[in-house]
């Protein structure tokens, strides 16, 4: 059984109502439910959403004591939070960065992720399914490490 921290960053609590032409109509609660359904009783997920950088960093730090890996959508922090990047690097847990939209086809400031260099990979552009793909990729990565 893998223990996975799923971390949703700022404004992601507004999924389903926020810019639905970009992010779709699926709510954060529905994404969380689909993640739980995907793993069933086979794996433990602890899911957090915060609009505050420090809370996200604290969640990453706490994960080092119980988690095998992290699935994270840092939201806008993707593009400038060296503090979140350093937290992921420090805990030495494999992480997968996910985004609903394809950040590489949007505004130029969204093209750069300061987080992904310390992650095992990035999944972007598959809508809410990016979370499922990211979780599956992380679980595959963990099984290959055993």
Describe the structure.
This protein is α/β, with parallel strands linked by helices and 146 residues long. It has one domain (3-145): Rossmann fold (3-Layer(aba) Sandwich). It is built from five helices and five strands, in the order βααβαβαββα. A five-stranded parallel β-sheet has the order 2-1-3-4-5, sandwiched between helices. α4 links the parallel β3 and β4. α2 runs parallel beside α5 and α3 runs parallel beside α4. The longest helix is centred in the C-terminal third of the chain and has 17 residues, at 129-145.
Briefly summarize what is shown.
With 146 residues, the chain is α/β, with parallel strands linked by helices. The chain has helices at residues 20-23, 28-39, 53-63, 82-91, 129-145, and strands at residues 3-8, 44-49, 69-73, 95-99, 121-124. Helices cover 37% and strands 18% of the residues.
Topology summary:
Blueprint: E1 3-8, H1 20-23, H2 28-39, E2 44-49, H3 53-63, E3 69-73, H4 82-91, E4 95-99, E5 121-124, H5 129-145
- In DSSP terms (H or I, runs of 4 or more residues), the helix count works out at 5
Shape: globular
Helical amount among residues, as a percent range?
25-40%
**Unreliable segments (pLDDT under 50, ≥5 consecutive)?**
none
Class from secondary-structure proportions: alpha/beta
Features of the shown structure:
5-stranded parallel beta sheet, 37% helix, alpha/beta, Rossmann fold
């Amino acid at each position: 059984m893998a223990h996975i921290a799923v971390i949703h960053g700022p404004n992601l609590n507004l999924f389903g109502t926020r810019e639905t032409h970009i992010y779709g109509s699926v709510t954060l609660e529905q994404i969380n439910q689909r993640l739980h359904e995907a793993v069933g009783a086979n794996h433990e997920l602890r899911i957090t959403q915060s609009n505050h950088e420090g809370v996200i960093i604290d969640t990453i730090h706490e994960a080092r004591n119980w988690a095998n890996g992290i699935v994270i959508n840092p939201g806008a922090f993707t593009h400038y939070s060296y503090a979140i990047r350093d937290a992921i690097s420090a805990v030495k847990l494999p992480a997968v960065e996910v985004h609903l939209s394809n950040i590489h086809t949007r505004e130029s400031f969204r093209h750069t992720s300061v987080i992904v260099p310390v992650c095992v990979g990035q999944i972007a552009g598959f809508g809410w399914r990016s979370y499922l793909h990211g979780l599956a990729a992380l679980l595959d990565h963990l099984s290959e490490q055993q």
